[in-house]
Amino acid sequence: MNKKRIKQLIITLILFVVSIVLFIVSKNNVDNQDIVYEEVKVTVIRAETEKLSSGARNGMHFSYHVTVFYEGKNYELINVQSGEMPKYEGLANLEADLQNDNPYFDNTVYLSNGKLYSNIAGIKTDTKQFNWQMLGLAGIAIFGTLHLMCAVDLADKKKKLKQENQ
């Protein structure tokens, strides 16, 4: 029984260390990656805030959808933040006949790999390196917790066995 617990303890420790290494390496890659993007002007067509849920503590979660027009196509902006929504909603609510005459109707966004992003941070978080970083972070949390649980369980079993032998 103790051999099984010790084996679990070693496995969770190894996975925990691998997760830490994965996180550190991928974090370094994310921080040092060259981001290729181009600033482009778009026309905001639609800006909507969608309420996703109301949590147990009355916490609200929202999803922000902004549709823009660029070079003859409609695009959904990626990584729109709550602080940016008033700007997009104001641009989307301008009257249609002012679209061509209003210099404020055009909005600068970032084009990268055929996608339009609301901000530069969205480009960094839409990469494989960032996904590996998040996987490493999740592994740290999961395997760290499992390792602690195995260690506590093993310590409890040793303590009970010691008490029974006395």
Description:
This protein has 166 residues and is of the alpha+beta class. The chain is built from four helices and five strands; from the N terminus they run αβββαββαα. It has helices spanning 2-32, 85-92, 120-124, 128-165, and strands at residues 38-54, 60-70, 73-76, 106-112, 115-117. Strands 3-2-1-4-5 form a five-stranded antiparallel β-sheet. Helix 1 runs antiparallel to helix 4. The longest helix is centred in the C-terminal third of the chain and has 38 residues, at 128-165. It starts with a helix and ends with a helix. The mean pLDDT is 83.
> What does the overall shape look like?
elongated
SSE topology string: HEEEHEEHH
Strand order of the largest sheet: 3-2-1-4-5
List unreliable stretches of 5+ residues: none
Distance between the termini: 20 Å
Number of strands: 5
Please state the structural category: alpha+beta
Total DSSP helices: 4
Question: What is the gist of this entry?
Answer:
With 166 residues, this protein is α+β, with helices and mostly antiparallel strands. It is built from four helices and five strands, in the order H-E-E-E-H-E-E-H-H.
